[in-house]
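Tutorial, part two.
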Amino acid sequence: MKKTFFIILIACSLHIHAQEIGIRLGEFTYSNVAIDGIVNFDDHTRLHGDIAFGEGIGANLLYDFTVERFNNPNFQYYIGTGLSAFLGDPFVLGVSGETGIEYLFKKTPITLGVDWRPQLNIISRTSLKLLQFGINIRYRINEI
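Running the prediction step on this input gives:
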């Protein structure tokens, strides 16, 4: 089992580009600050995860498609969807969408982004949150 897991991990890592870690400021499930992380893949897709602590634990895991940079190679656009959860009182499980734009600084491994995340909560408390915006500041690991 350990050998199989290790082989899968190595195979996945061959398709991974720069990873990013930072913070997200703005609306988040029962919090205003979250730890933000990204794993980029070769095929212009990525996993975008957030976790926040407060009255409980909030987490998002989104699968994004990045769009080729248009007129400026420092800008990147993305859109995606995924799951949202809040482990606290009340327990919440839902689906989130995401669209945003990022600026990748070339001389330093910093990414600055703005996103919009509408969220449909399904379990425990059914609600639709449309006005969830955030600012992301991340450090790109293994780049420069």
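The two ends are 36 Å apart (CA to CA). In part three we will examine how such features are distributed along the chain.
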